[in-house]
Known about the structure:
This protein is of the alpha/beta class and 243 residues long. It has 9 helices and 7 strands. The chain has one domain (7-235): Rossmann fold, CATH 3.40.50.720. The protein has a 7-stranded parallel beta sheet, sandwiched between helices. The protein starts with 6 loop residues before the first strand and ends in a 7-residue tail after the last strand.
Amino acid sequence: MKLSGRVALVTGGAQGIGRAVAEKLHAEGAQVAIADLNGDGANAVAERLDGLAIEADISDEQDVDRIARETLARFTKLDVLVNAAAIVPFIPWDDVDFAYWRRIISVNLDGAYLVARAVERPMRDAGYGRIVLIASNAFMAGTPNMGPYLAAKGGVVGLTRALATELGKYGITANAVAPGITRTEAVMNSPHKDALDFVQSLQAIPRHAQPQDIAPAVAFLASEESGWVTGQVLVADAGHVRN
């Protein structure tokens, strides 16, 4: 098991890709803390994985500091961060006002920054860390009705590169995984579900993505095996975007 003895924090781990990642990291031997605004969902996942559930808003600095403190109090260390918490909007550009823009940015970009800052100190002290941020291939494709989200996920790519540059000397790597559209609860309860078949027609692999399709890419970047990989974006979208 590639994560035996490691402690991982997964934000957004109550559902969708985050839940699949938490399950995969646990299967690979990690102890897992799940942080999510959905406290009941986080508790349900943590109970199955014998992990820690933390109800928190990653756009709130005090909540994020508490996430790190509670994880360290339970497990004494923090080796891996996977930031999967996000708001995935569907809104025409003409309807985007500044308040809405700020809400999307605050969770999807500010949250990524806050969580990375909160975990980097224990990782520095240990001389080891894996930071994996969830980006999106929508940033590369310029998907419509997602303007603030595209801007935020572009920022996540930039943040990933900045973290790699600044933290490499401490034994910490930083990478991102960019999934394509995936059959999560959020997608299936939004207008995005209507795009699944169209996107499938653009992929090299002709089927809909499931959260479990994304988790192995994250697990690799969260493991010791990825020690010579940093500052990179791994696109997991069945060849939809072929860079």
